Amino acid sequence: MGTAHDDQPFSPEVQLAETIQALYLHRRRTLTDPDTAEAYDIALEAAILVVDGAKMHGHIDDDQHQVIAGMLQAARRAPHAL
Questions:
Q1: How far apart are CA 75 and CA 69, in angstroms?
Q2: Which of 3, 9, 20, 48 has minimal CB crowding within 10 Å?
Q3: Three-state SS for 2?
Q4: Helices marked H in the chain — which ranges?
């Protein structure tokens, strides 16, 4: 896919952002639209709450929580990487 910006070096975060953006474009939406980006952020915030609950109830341990929460936080930055 390349990079989101020609002057920006390729990174996994940019690749993730472009992949997520492609999912939105397939549905005729874009993460560059402020309302869509806000809705995306709300959904990821909800996902983080689910992961926090899983940790609190002992379904995942601290290390698993840290990995999953970190991945969701990285995904949350996707609109800003475009």
A1: 10
A2: 9
A3: coil
A4: 12-26, 34-56, 62-76, 78-81
